[in-house]
Write a structure and sequence with these properties.
The chain is α+β, with helices and mostly antiparallel strands. 37% of the residues lie in helices and 28% in strands. It is globular.
Amino acid sequence: MSKYVMPPRQKMINLLYVILIAMLAINISSDVLQGYDLVDKKLMERIAATEEYIDTMRVQVAMRHDEQLIAVSEQAYARTQSMRLMLDSLREAIAQYADKDDYCRGKLHARDDLNATPGVMLSATNGKGKALRLALDAYRESMLQLIADSTKRVYVSSFLNLQSSVRGMSWERETFSYLPAIGGVMMLNCIEEEVVQMLAEVHHSLLEDGLAGVRSGVGSYVLINEGQRIVDDNGMFDVPVVLVSPSVINTLYAGYGNVLNIFCAGVPFDQLDFSASGGTVVRRGGTCIITPQGNVRALSLRIYCVRDGKRTHLCDYDYKVQPLPDPVAFLTYRGSDNAVRNYYGGVPIRREDLSNAVGVEARVNEGPSVKFIVKSFETMMIKNGSGEISSARSQGNKLSAAQHEQILKLSPGDKFYVTSIVVASPDGTTKQISPINMIII
């Protein structure tokens, strides 16, 4: 009997079957993806609830009128916000890696991508996992110093435990090696939940125990090295870690003092030095204010450590520079409950509410939190039916007596406009912005 030889075509078909089976093996089912979505939704709900709880406690701390206690509260809050900015940038990096040309900020389309999470967190050349671990360790130790009661401190120390359970494997490799893109985002949300929980516990401790027993680490820096963790008020450390996050990720705004939140481990803040190509940098407390100059479209921030007369370069951060968005004008008025409300126009408003108008303000709704100063504006009334037109002007942002009289003459169906609104930006330049249109009911 002759030996059977498989035809090339059959070999190719068999190979295709093997490839198909392999693809099915690595494909993530929709049920698994929905499970990730469900967990992620619950995480975001808990984070939002914890944020509200923290806001309540921050108000209670402020009511104590204890400057030192308030300063500690604000310092803890600032550190937490810096940590959350870092986590947000990592979530966006995973989404950008997964979606590539289809990337849109705040969205993740290729949720089942198996390369995005390890590609961002564990890349041999630019992996972010180690930097995240170092930053979380620094954050954890700094927050533990703010808890006076030892029993509470033991409990809070259970948060952000970054020890690997696999011998010889780092925490970041154990955590992020096998997660799809949606899993990486969910894991970062889990970490953010623990971060805000730690801040809540710190504020709970400040309200119950005050500063009694709080270690001298308030204002000190947590020093981290491979294989050891050291808390040292002198800030002596061989491999410092510095993380800088702008209030809007990777973007600076021209003609505006952009706040940079500085989170560093391994070197005290007063030993850091900054320079910016195309801008100026000013220290303010534990932050830096950076203002791009002229018409620059990009800016590079260089950070140095100055210690014992030696200036050592630590890192660079590159930012895009763009003009401030045009502000949106709105009318403020007092409601029947005496609370001040904002009215942006476009929907009918009662004459009773309009008669309680306080003034006109303007601010940017997207990007940085910038309040523009309203220098002047004009109101215009068009009577329904007769088409009669009248106008009145105001210098400043408050309604003039003539404008209040104009409002009292309004009837249902009349049209009322706030036009010729001139505002001053933070750099002192003025511009005219879009009007507020309204119909009286």
